[in-house]
Amino acid sequence: xxxxxxxxxxxxxxxxxxxxxxxxxxxxxxxxxxxxxxxxxxxxxxxxxxxxxxxxxxxxxxxxxxxxxxxxxxxxxxxxxxxxxxxxxxxxxxxxxxxxxxxxxxxxxxxxxxxxxxxxxxxxxxxxxxxxxxxxxxxxxxxxxxxxxxxxxxxxxxxxxxxxxxxxxxxxxxxxxxxxxxxxxxxxxxxxxxxxxxxxxxxxxxxxxxxxxxxxxxxxxxxxxxxxxxxxxxxxxxxxxxxxxxxxxxxxxxxxxxxxxxxxxxxxxxxxxxxxxxxxxxxxxxxxxxxxxxxxxxxxxxxxxxxxxxxxxxxxxxxxxxxxxxxxxxxxxxxxxxxxxxxxxxxxxxxxxxxxxxxxxxxxxxxxx
Length: 369
Known about the structure:
Trigger factor, domain 2, 15% strand, single chain, two-stranded antiparallel ribbon, 369 residues, Chitinase A, domain 3, 5-stranded antiparallel beta sheet
């Protein structure tokens, strides 16, 4: 359930604490009567499609390429070496106008391209306008090269340059190239837990198929849950809970603003281009949306008697830790808090319950073409 935690953990973090705060001390959140606030749709037997993700040799080749890239060594190029795509060149350059234009005359230097020095450019990166990088391919360290280009239309960086012809005089100071190691059994044995290329590629197939299965399940869960949310009807909102969520959200952004030495209003205007009133309205709607999903989840949990066992908590926390880059389950629990991890695992269990009780049709990539 690698992706489900990323979908639910944010809501778990915020809502659990907020809901408990919003209700009185005598109220237990698990016993709260959410059904007076929302009329849940029929959540069993939902028609859904599980779209199978096909893993191909191209996917394996991409994994191998990434693996080799991580082991690449850097080679300094000499005057004898010819530049190719992917090489990094260190250059000085000056840009000149070619032709007469409304704001430019033939031979004018471009202010923004006047004697730039020591710029590192990866050939083929697409960072420069079309024709510049390709104009350096085939050349050598120490050369001075003239590259003719035309600024694109439109040109967002400087609309005045749109369509302008230019010549760049480029001096190549130095260059380097990433050299990939030879892909063989020896490389695999030295850098992985496998002894041969065959074993390594078998692992890649299993890994990508497992990830594809998790993605398929995540997409299926998302579709089923979206159906439930869209087809359930809000009777009324629990005002205390919505207000608590909204206030917590505002408090969080107020703290963000303080880190920039700004009042909330100034922070919102500068970084989000919105007024405080617009922000509060937006946060209120977000709060309502999160609360609706929380209520639907809790209704299903209560109706179906879904509980999380200790074994499920331990194994689930270990998997969460592994999938999310934590050293172990203890580190995960320390970071998120035990209640949050338990809540997210419980909600994963609800999602699997919904999948198990859905009318699922499996289709392949070719079926959807």
